[in-house]
Every structure is written in structure tokens, then in C-alpha cells.
Amino acid sequence: AIDPQFHENREQVDEHKGHAVWGPVDEPDELGIHGTHVAVDFDLCIADGACLEDCPVDVFEWVETPGHPESEEKADPANEAQCIDCMLCVDVCPVDAIDVDAG
Ligand code: SF4
Ligand code: F3S
Ligand code: ZN
Questions:
Q1: How far apart are the first and last CA of the chain?
Q2: pLDDT tens digit string along 55-89?
Q3: 36 CA distance to ligand 3 centroid (A)?
Q4: What is the distance, to the nearest Å, from the Cα of residue 49 to the centroid of all Cα atoms in its chain?
Q5: CB of 97 shorter than 6 A to ligand 2
Q6: Domains in the chain and their CATH numbers?
Q7: CA distances, 27 to each of 10, 30, 67, 91 (Å)
Q8: Number of H-type helices and E-type strands within the chain
Q9: Can you list the alpha helix ranges (DSSP code H) found in the chain?
Q10: Could you give phi then psi for residue 13, rounded to 5 degrees?
Q11: What is the pLDDT of residues 21-50, one digit of tens each?
Q12: 95 lines ligand 2 (CB under 6 A)
């Protein structure tokens, strides 16, 4: 499962479409965590798609990740600022790849 303490345990190494990327990153095998309020561990995501289907405000968008061992696309929290903290995505992800910091 995604580390809920990733803010402390990882470093922000990059930015992607306006959100943070938390390392380590070593493409294409290791992609890190995308997002801060809505965070997706790209190294855990298997492209199940439940988060995209269920999010009521369309926070997630597919991003291509060719060559990653778990899946060749990931749910990117492209619109994390829209999140209403319903926690649906956290509940439906089969591999617990998502953390929402509802504070
Ligand atoms: Fe969408 Fe709810 Fe997840 Fe926020 S917590 S990203 S609103 S499904
Ligand atoms: Fe990935 Fe979990 Fe969404 S596997 S596509 S983050 S439901
Ligand atoms: Zn991203």
C-alpha cells in the first residue's frame, strides 16, 4: 500500500502537470508518487481504473507509462485541487495505491 507518511519519507524530485512527483524516480521501472493532496503511487497502480470511474469530480486522468512492470498506464491526479475528500478512490483501489490527505 502507499505510504501515508510519504511527505516525510520521500523527497519531491519533480513536477508533472502542476502537481508534485515524490521520488525515487528511475524511468521506466520506478515512477514514484504523483500528487500531494490526492497521491497515487505509480509503482503500485495496476491501471484498474476504478478511481477514474468512481471519482465524482474527475480528479484522475490516464497517463501513459510504457515499460513500467505493473502497468503501461497510470491514474494521474491531474485535477487534485477539485477533490472533495469523499474517499471513494481510496476505498475502491484494489492495490491501495491512493492516499487522500483529508486532514
Ligand atoms: Fe475523487 Fe473522492 Fe478520491 Fe477526491 S477522494 S480524488 S473526490 S474519489
Ligand atoms: Fe490505479 Fe488503483 Fe486507480 S490500480 S487506476 S490507482 S483504482
Ligand atoms: Zn502526474
A1: 19
A2: 999 999 999 999 999 999 999 999 999 999 999 99
A3: 10
A4: 12
A5: yes
A6: 6-100 (3.30.70.20)
A7: 17, 5, 8, 28
A8: 3, 7
A9: 6-9, 50-54, 88-92
A10: -110, -10
A11: 999 999 999 999 999 999 999 999 999 999
A12: yes
